[in-house]
Write a structure and sequence with these properties.
This protein has 537 residues and is α+β, with helices and mostly antiparallel strands. The protein has helices spanning 2-20, 26-43, 54-69, 73-82, 102-113, 129-144, 369-372, and strands spanning 148-150, 154-158, 164-169, 188-194, 203-208, 212-217, 222-226, 241-246, 253-259, 263-268, 273-278, 280-283, 294-297, 310-316, 325-330, 334-339, 344-348, 362-367, 378-383, 387-392, 397-401, 412-417, 426-432, 435-440, 445-449, 465-470, 479-484, 488-493, 497-503, 519-530. The protein has a four-stranded antiparallel sheet, with no helix packed on it. The radius of gyration is 24 Å and the shape is globular.
Length: 537
């Protein structure tokens, strides 16, 4: 009976914390304190009965570990701030000589799972282990998870409750097709609208190309929908889908990516990289009868038969089995992977974006020597159609490939540091098509590259921008997440407000069907939406 009562109390407390997680008010904080007192009454019996109650205390520890392991960084911070009894935070003595609370224990477990050495002493000027570990976990999670994604004609969001929300036009909105519509291109959703089939799932990350979409749940499940011309949805058969469908062969996934050449990727919690989609790209030679079509690898990282056109189910990249992958980016026919040791690998057929100063395809992953020689630890990568970017732990950005969006204004076959960003610490980087953007540690958004006449780089002009340039329309706004599509950009601020600019029909600003060619050149907040961003209270 005691165990049953304790379990019920803990479940009720977890439910209350989950409901209040997006933003604790003073009233909710007081309620959290009441819950803590009630839990103590269940789990901390008088000293005389402690020996007899030890099984109950052990049950509590096990249940706490399970619950805390399923909370994201923001939830952990909120729980720690509300329930101080879960922290037991103190700057001294060393960890081996002091009691460590459940929140700190969970944060240490996550760091160790990523192969990171927490150390035995706090950094200079830091007085709290929980605060220190939360900041580190938040930084890593910020690279891992994306609450925004953008394609050619659509936008995808994760709202504060973890629901999948979409808007725009075309057939990639995740909603079942209207039987009265003749084609998917007729569909239009003017305001951010929840995807009905996904409302019972909590989503933590989304990814999109111009042709297909992926969503990652808090439980590590991957859902896909859209065009499945080359098996990019990962279901084993080539058949598109209007609504999200779970990829059954994937488990415990932490990161997802979608590429513009019908490719997809996922990284599980063990650091294993899986890829699927187009395997070989058939290149036609402009109808010249003397030149035959030929096939090139599209960057899946597998040794495949030359006649294999696609991989319809996720397959592990065995060539990286000795590495723990922590980040992946997919371009047009090439892939970038970054490991927990800070190394960057590339593979595929885009010669100038592989970073090896050669004109050879790389079927299997090959470490980029020029980045290794910098002596820096890289933590994130980004890929456009014909350019690539890599970010160091210190916030330094390197770019290579096509000169329109690599940050240099000229083609670079090997990675070079982006000179325009020297002196600024970059915390996030993103690329799509022929455009790139970066978010600095101060929360400033800089964009460059871009297509002519779509207005999606936010500088109140229709054209390209060679060097990284701050988006003046967001002056004073601290950006926490960003995504770029073919013709629009989405940027979420520290409060979860989404600022949008570019082609109006994709932005979620209009309930009525707008002119598909009209533009929003100045960043404009979407009034009906708040997304979940990683902000520590």
């Amino acid at each position: 009976m005691a165990s049953a009562a304790a379990l019920a109390a803990l479940q009720a407390a977890a439910h209350e914390c989950q409901l209040a997680a997006p933003s604790f008010s003073d009233e909710q904080a007081a309620q959290g304190l009441t819950i803590t007192v009630q839990l103590r009454a269940h789990f901390l019996p008088p000293a005389a009965t402690t020996q007899a109650a030890s099984p109950l205390l052990q049950l509590l520890a096990e249940l706490q570990a399970v619950i805390l392991s399923n909370l994201d960084t923001c939830d952990l911070a909120l729980l720690a701030a509300t329930c101080r009894s879960l922290c037991r935070d103190a700057p001294a003595p060393p960890p081996s000589q002091r009691a460590i609370g459940p929140v700190e224990a969970e944060l240490r477990r996550r760091a160790e799972a990523r192969g990171l050495d927490v150390g035995s002493s706090l950094p200079e000027g830091v007085t709290s282990w929980v605060a220190c570990l939360l900041k580190r976990d938040r930084r890593d999670a910020q690279v891992m998870q994306a609450p925004l994604a953008a394609g050619r004609y659509h936008s995808i969001f994760i709202d504060r409750a973890g629901h999948l929300v979409t808007c725009g036009r075309g057939g990639l909105l995740g909603h079942a097709m209207d039987p009265d519509a003749n084609t998917q291109s007729l569909r239009h959703i003017g305001l951010p609208t929840p995807v009905p089939s996904m409302q019972d799932r909590r989503i933590v990350s989304v990814a999109s190309s111009d042709a297909h979409c992926l969503a990652l749940s808090a439980g590590g499940e991957v859902y896909s929908w859209g065009d499945d011309l080359y098996g990019s949805l990962g279901h084993g058969e080539v058949a598109g889908g209007d609504v999200p469908r779970r990829i059954e062969s994937l488990r415990r996934v932490e990161r997802i990516a979608a590429g513009s050449s019908w490719t997809s990727a996922a990284v599980d919690e063990d650091g294993r990289l899986f890829t699927w989609g187009m395997a070989m790209l058939i290149v036609e030679e402009d109808e010249d009868p003397e030149l035959e079509a030929f096939a090139v690898t599209s960057g899946l990282g597998h040794e495949l038969d030359a006649e294999t056109e696609y991989q319809a189910t996720p397959k592990r990249v065995d060539a990286l089995s000795q590495e723990r992958v922590v980040g992946v980016a997919l371009g047009d026919g090439f892939t970038l992977a970054v490991t927990d040791a800070g190394a960057v690998f590339s593979f595929g057929h885009q010669h100038t974006v592989l970073g090896h100063d050669s004109y050879e395809d790389e079927v299997l992953p090959r470490r980029i020597k020029a980045l290794a020689e910098t002596g820096r630890r890289f933590v994130a990568v980004a890929a456009g159609d014909h350019h690539a970017l890599a970010l160091t732990e210190e916030g330094e950005l390197y770019g290579w490939g096509d000169g329109g969006a690599n940050g240099h204004g000229r083609e670079e076959r090997t990675p070079q540091r982006v000179a325009a960003l020297i002196g600024q610490r970059v915390k996030l980087v993103y690329a799509h098509g022929s455009a790139s953007c970066a978010v600095t540690e101060k929360g400033e958004l800089l964009t460059w590259g871009g297509y002519i006449d779509v207005g999606h780089i936010g500088h109140r002009v229709q054209g390209t921008q060679i060097e990284p340039t701050r988006v003046d329309g967001l002056s004073g706004v601290k950006i926490s997440a960003v995504a770029m599509g073919y013709a629009h950009t989405l940027a979420a601020d520290a409060d979860g407000v989404v600022w949008a600019f570019g082609t109006r029909s994709t932005l979620g600003l209009d309930a009525t069907r707008p002119d598909p060619d009209s533009l929003v050149l100045t960043p404009t907040p979407i009034p009906t939406l708040r997304v979940r961003v990683l902000n520590s209270p």
